[in-house]
Amino acid sequence: MFGLLKKTEEKTTEANRVAVDAPTLAPDLVRPDLLTVEQAKAMPLDQMTKLFNAHLNPGQYHFMKLLGFHKVKIESAEGMFYTDQNGRRILDFFGGFGSLAFGHNHPRILAARQKFQQENRHEIAMAFLSQYAAALAHNLAAIAPGDLDMVFLGSSGSEAMEAAIKVAERYQGPKRAKVLYAQNAFHGKTKGVLSITDSTLYQSEFTLVEDVKKVPFGDLEAIREALESDPEIGIVCLETIQGGGGIIEAPTEFWQGLRALCDQKGVLWVADEVQSGTGRSGRFFAFEHHGVIPDVTALAKSLGGGKTAMAAMIARREIYMKAYGKPSTALIHGPATFGGIGEACITAIEGLNIMYDEKLMENAAEVGAYLKAELERLMAKYPKLIKDVRGRGFMMGLEFQDFSRTMPAAVKPMLSLMDEKLKGSLSGFIGSSLLRDHDVLVAFTEYNRNVVRLQPPLIASRENVDQFITALDAVLGGGVVKIVTDFIKSQRG
Ligand SMILES: Cc1ncc(COP(=O)(O)O)c(C=O)c1O
User: Fold this and answer.
1) Whose Cα sits closest to atom 16 in ligand 1?
2) What architecture is domain 108-357?
3) DSSP state of 56
4) What pLDDT digit, counting tens, does each position of 245-255 carry?
5) Which of 281, 301, 308, 310, when mutated, tests ligand 1's pocket best, judged by the most ligand atoms within 8 Å of its CB?
6) What's the rounded Cα separation, in Å, for the pair 465 and 372?
7) Which CATH superfamily is domain 77-103+360-492 in?
8) d(Cα 448, Cα 492) in Å, to the nearest integer?
């Protein structure tokens, strides 16, 4: 059923032969062996695997296989649950790394998009004013505190963060363009923000921007020292809650001190809210917990309503106007071709309305506190397994004890055969078991392999939390030897 064209897929096809046999048509005009939408939807797992490895990311497949995630084909998703090819319902406590504030396929978001399509609305309106982009920018400015009023629309968190750093640099000028960032920061993988993403893996051997300086996260004195010793630093860029770093927060005194320090030194504070924003922490922006307002911020992930790619950089008006406010500077950074595309804007607009109508931030705060209390109960029950529970709202980190040096003797021979990434790290074994045996999906953490990230949709209920906690309790109750042994057995199966 699925004809294949490429060598990497190890087949020749009818379409290929037609291309050779048809003398009247230039070969590149002959329809290649294209799959249709219906074929894509119906594709069996073995074919997905083959195409993923042939054309997408074979290395990533290795990790999916390691954890057993490669056996799952998602057929549909609704609210808190995925449904796989066998009709199994999987509870989503992963939430697309924080991209699913409204759950999967929220009916109001679907309805808004369907109506928009039926009305033949336009998408790309670069030549004209867009009522949709204008309304979304209005909504974001209305939600954002203080004079965070000027909005740039894009499609990814990296793009929003690039825009944030650039607007700040334009304001400060080239002599104050140096950026201070934090240890374990994640701001994206595009070429610019890669320099302030603190990962040797991601930075690899790429050439980086040199005008950056790193300090420990949450260390006000280190920032003060850096600003005092280097007047070229004009920008401080921080995630309000570090996501990739393992759900790390700084106290209110830090943020208030940072605001005062930046004001005193004429430095701009850029708050990356790509993951912590759009209600995830129980407030729209996580910095609102601390009674301070940054100069520039960025949103993405859940802003797209779980249905589309949408990102925004929001800057104080004074900053934006100095950077791009004149006709001669207006086009220096924006607009982006797909920034403010119609259906993406109305999806975000509907999402923002739902956020308030359905009191999702209140739910994240309240049910998130319940989740935290339940996790703390498990930490008290399994102190040898759980090291820490942290975070707020539905941005929660669960850190397991590090077993790299203390794995029980019984499992050491088995572990010696295993992938380096898994050795000593309980989170992989436990995440794998949660999916395999308990139909629950959780997320891992880039920089700290002992941390599981819990970022369920903001619609999650106490019942959903109970299902998750019961599953986790069952996995932990088996103890380390069983957790590892079950994992090894699953690898053989
Ligand atoms: C805090 C933060 N900033 C930026 C990004 C980059 O976003 P994207 O992957 O959409 O480019 C991410 C993505 O995980 C993030 O968590």
Assistant:
1) 275
2) 3-Layer(aba) Sandwich (3.40)
3) I
4) 999 999 999 99
5) 301
6) 10
7) Aspartate Aminotransferase, domain 1 (3.90.1150.10)
8) 27
